[in-house]
Structures are given as structure tokens and as C-alpha cells.
Amino acid sequence: MAGSLALLGSVVPRDARVVRKLRAVGAIILGKASMSEWAVFRSLEAPMGWNAIGGQPKNPYVLSANPSGSSTGSAISAATNLATVTLGTETDGSIITPSSANSLVGIKPTLGLTSRAGVILISPRQDTVGPICRTVLDAVFVLDEIVGFDQRDKKATIAASKFIPAGGYKQFLKAEGLRGKRLGILREPFFNFSGTSVLAQTFETHFKTLRQKGAILVDNVEISNINVILDVRESGEGLALLYEFKKALNAYLSELLVSPVRTLSDVIAFNIKHSKEEKLKEYGQDIFILAESLNRSNSSQVKRAISNLKELSRNGIEKVMREKKLDAILAPANTPVYTILAIGGYPGITVPAGYDEEGVPFGICFGGLRGSEPKLIEIAYSFEQATHIRRPPTFKS
């Protein structure tokens, strides 16, 4: 229900494909996790994790800290052992950042590696479904079961099916998986914290560990167009997402068996009518209104924006990884390194990396090109086994 009162009581025609696949191998579905309402795509004013149905969730490590989102409930449920494994969806950071903030492993798969059928999408061009778990092993076991072709998400899944290795992903859970891997450290602008901070000291220790495990670190790797990539207006990502969201949401709502709303316009009207009941008036719905204002007359602008995003990826991460002969890039997972991966449909894995001065978790993110999950799993699992960072939540006030 995307955390929205507008979808309370709605009935879907079928389970999402990834849920059906998990049920088929014996998984017990406990329920739907809470999330940042509409995946933080209603208004940027609303706090991370908040939605009108469930309210504001807490970070189980430090209750006053940001629990992150938008897959907030999935991350908290996994961190607190309320569920053995969970799923999240990501458009731009929504698996990687809550996993980082809750000391978890999150896998953002290559676009189309997992079906999005049954998911409320922001962007069919960027959205992906992946596991959020306590260990790399658990996450990989889940990934193995949810990947694959789906007729209801044909275009994306057929293109990505070629990346699925024979024998699945479990074979890449190698304790010595870091040996020989070339890892590019994205210092700028992602390591912009004080050199005396816990984060800085922790990452320098991790770099030593990576080298000891046989990785080749290529330091100070620079993506020349990074400032454009991280600017949603200049890159065109913001416009593209707004346009894609309206179309995708209207398509999703039209298929519901029962629903009080059938279009984005209906949702906006519902929110206005029930703003006092929702206690959401102060958060508004500025993103919704912008999305609703777009129509076919904007299609040429959107095409140019999407073309620009592809070019930014080709001249950004793809160029750097090719020239430096990298197996993966790395950066703190609580930084917008996820945007580099998001705009090109690239995969990323975050693994617990430490806890800051207040005890708030942070992760390390390893990212690569499309279909590079085998290498990323080897890297992430080897790092996890060498460090064993994760500890249970403290519920510190």
C-alpha cells in the first residue's frame, strides 16, 4: 500500500512475482513491511521511514537516528530479527541506505535481474527488487530464488536473464573472494568526513584488510562527470523520474481489483480531502503535483533526459572501470554513490562497515557494471568474513 491511506483497503490481482517465487520454495511470508510513504516520492519534507499508516519507525541502534528509507520497515525487521530475510525495492538508494543505517547486507541487483511485476514503481528504467538481510549468505540465498525471467516484466527480465550464472550465485560465496580483485576507491566526493573521525579511521583500517586479503586498491579514482550525475536537475534524472512515476502509478492503480483511487490525480485529491486525518498537511505533496503536471508534451524533454543519463553512465562509471580495469568501485554506503548505480541500472552490495561516534551503523558499498553480481558477491562475502562487523541492535535512546 506504499504506506498511504489512499490505498487502504485496496486489493491486488495477484502476488508480486518475487513473492510467488519465495512461496514456491517454502518461504513463509509474515507480511508487508512499513516503508517511507510512496518511497519518499510524495514530498521531500516527510522524514525518512514515515508513512500515514504506520507513523515514524525508529532506528533500532540509536532510536533518535535516521532509520533511512525507503525500504525502512524491511531493514528494521531484518535488523531486529522480526524476520529471517526481507525484500526491499530501490529506485535511487532505497535498498543500499536503509541496509547501511541498520547494519545489514543489502543487494541492489542489476536492473531486470528480478521481476518488478506487482511492485508500485517509480521508474521501470531504474527500479529493482533485492534482499535485505543480516548476512551476505542469507542475501545471496534469497537472490538465487527471486532472479529470472517473468512474462509480466518481459522487457527488463529477458534482457537481464543472460547475466544469471549456471549454478546460481551461491557458488560465489568464497572466503578468499577478494584475492586479485581491483577495487577503485571513490574518495571524491564520498569521503568528505574529518580524517580524525571514526568513519575515516574505520575505512583506513578496512583498506588495510582488503589489501591483506589480496585485493588491489586503486585509490583516488575520479568520475569526471560526478557533479552532474549527483545533480538531479542537471542530469535529467529528476524530470525522468517524475514523468515515469505518473505513467507507472496510473498503470498499477488501473489493475487493482478494489481501490479508492485509480490515478495519480485521484491520489492527490484524496490527500487534500483527508489531510487533517492523515496529519500530513505539513508535509504536502509537492512531488506528486509536479509529476501530475507532466504530460505527452514533455515527452521530448524526457527522451533527452534519459539519453543524457545513458551518456553520463557511459562516460562515468563505465569509462572509469574500463580504463582502470576495475572489478568494483567502493564508497561509504550512506553517501549518494548509489545514484551512480541507479541511473545506469547497475548492481551494488552494501555490507556493515562500522558504527559512528554515536553508535549509528554505516556500511561499505561495492558497485559494478551490469551483471557483475558474481564478482560483487565474492568481494562482499570475503570482506564480511574478514571483518565480522555486525552486532545486534542496542536500542540506544
Produce the secondary structure layout.
Layout (H helix, E strand, L loop, with lengths): L16 H8 L47 H8 L6 E5 L5 H6 L3 E4 L19 E6 L2 H11 L7 H7 L21 E4 L1 H4 L7 H15 L3 E3 L7 H4 L2 H4 L1 H19 L8 H10 L1 H4 L7 H8 L5 H26 L3 E5 L4 H8 L3 E8 L5 E7 L5 H15 L10
> What is the name of the CATH architecture?
Alpha-Beta Complex
Residue share in helix = 25-40%
If strands are numbered along the chain, what order do they take across the biggest sheet? 1-3-2-7-8-6-4-5
Q: What fold name stands as the CATH topology?
A: Amidase signature (AS) enzymes
Overall radius of gyration = 20 Å
Helix/strand/pairing class, anyone? alpha+beta
Number of domains: 1
Largest sheet: 8 strands, mixed
What does this protein structure show overall?
This protein is of the alpha+beta class and 397 residues long. It has one domain: Amidase signature (AS) domain (Amidase signature (AS) enzymes, Alpha-Beta Complex), CATH 3.90.1300.10. Helix content is 40%, strand content 11%. It has helices at 17-24, 72-79, 96-101, 136-146, 154-160, 187-190, 198-212, 226-229, 232-235, 237-255, 264-273, 275-278, 286-293, 299-324, 337-344, 373-387, and strands at 86-90, 105-108, 128-133, 182-185, 216-218, 328-332, 348-355, 361-367. It has an eight-stranded mixed beta sheet, with helices on both faces. A hairpin with a 5-residue loop joins strand 7 (348-355) and strand 8. The radius of gyration is 20 Å and the shape is globular. The two termini are 30 Å apart. Residues 1-334 form the Amidase domain.
